[in-house]
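Progress note, sequence design subtask.
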């Protein structure tokens, strides 16, 4: 039911729902449509708000193209005016040159936004943060990147700009919920489709080793999809391990997920040698140093690697494949088949995060 307090009276046009699309196009072209009020369905009709009373010529044209029409007066709800862009909400607070420097995109993880600001906007960071809150009503906190991802824990320093002062949130991805703490454990929403792509490749009966699991998106998406699958999620960051355990409870995976705390080299040596049919190596800054570890985790006759690295230039795929091939050879393994290679995301101009999916085996096999 429409509340009288939230409506306003307008000239209206009633047409059949079948003629609704044609009517809206015609009213837009003739500048009769009231764009600030909501069209209302009513039975088999649409009640459309008009900005003025149509003249005789307008009514004749409407009848010719729409058939039976009824002009009257009706109550309409006003449309909720929404800000279309960050530039619009900050138009009166920043100069044109600064508006032109606003980032075209940023990450939203759960209800937290993380933005990368160019140097010229650093002095106006709070204003930008408040603008993001104004545009994205689902965002409760805004942070700026304050440095690069460093260390084995893969933590990026953050600077609070606006909203709530917290770094924990729940991020939803393909039906899973992940508790994330951006200040304590690695997670990237830009890998969302990559998480799902790998999960879709895993087959029944497999055992998968996720060598650098973060908060568990690869591991839990795989185990959520399949009952008869085993996943070993490994991370050296105790906070990430704690969050994987919590995310297991949140998502109740069908398959079995084991969580291992420690450096992947030590965990595989002590617990996972020769166990896996597939290994995920999402540590692009240093995956090359762990190729021998991934091979050790695979069955003695080999298996599948998902190898992530960084590569530059237009031939980034070839460079990534060659890097993996050379690393395998140095550890007496070989690439049996290149299943695929692709850019996962751009990290700078002509600089990419690349994944190589490959079937590998010992060189003697």
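Output:
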């Amino acid at each position: 039911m429409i509340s009288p307090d939230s409506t306003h009276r307008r000239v209206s046009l009633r047409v059949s729902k079948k003629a609704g699309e044609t009517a809206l196009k015609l009213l837009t072209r003739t500048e009769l449509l009231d764009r600030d009020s909501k069209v209302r369905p009513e039975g088999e009709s649409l009640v459309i708000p008009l900005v003025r009373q149509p003249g005789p010529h307008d009514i004749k044209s409407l009848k010719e193209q729409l058939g039976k029409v009824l002009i009257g007066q009706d109550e309409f709800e006003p449309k909720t005016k929404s800000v279309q862009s960050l530039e619009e909400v900050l138009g009166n607070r920043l100069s044109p040159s600064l508006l032109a420097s606003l980032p075209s995109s940023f990450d939203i993880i759960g209800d937290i936004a993380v933005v990368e600001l160019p140097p010229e906007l650093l002095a106006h960071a709070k204003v930008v943060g408040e603008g993001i809150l104004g545009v994205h009503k689902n965002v409760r906190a805004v942070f700026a990147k304050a440095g690069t991802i460093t260390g084995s824990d893969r933590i990026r320093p953050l600077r609070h700009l606006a909203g709530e002062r917290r770094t924990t949130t729940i991020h939803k991805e393909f039906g899973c919920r992940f508790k994330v703490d951006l200040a304590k454990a690695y997670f990237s929403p830009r890998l969302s489709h990559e998480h799902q792509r790998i999960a879709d490749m895993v087959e029944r009966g497999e055992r998968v080793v996720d060598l650098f699991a973060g908060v568990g998106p690869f591991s839990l998406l795989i185990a959520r999809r399949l009952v008869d699958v085993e996943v070993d999620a490994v991370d050296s960051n105790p906070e990430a391990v704690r969050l994987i355990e919590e995310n297991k409870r949140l998502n109740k995976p069908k398959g079995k997920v084991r969580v291992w705390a420690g450096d992947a080299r030590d965990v595989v040596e002590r617990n996972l040698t020769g166990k896996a049919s597939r290994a995920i190596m999402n540590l692009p800054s240093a995956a090359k140093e762990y190729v021998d570890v991934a091979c050790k985790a695979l069955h003695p006759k080999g298996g599948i690697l998902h190898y992530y690295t960084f590569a530059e230039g237009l031939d980034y795929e070839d460079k990534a494949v060659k890097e993996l091939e050379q690393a395998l050879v140095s550890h007496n393994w070989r690439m049996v088949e290149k299943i695929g290679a692709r850019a996962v995301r751009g990290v700078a101009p002509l600089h990419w995060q690349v994944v190589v999916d490959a079937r590998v085996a010992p060189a003697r096999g």
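DSSP finds eleven helices and 17 strands in the chain. Work on this subtask will continue into the next period as scheduled.
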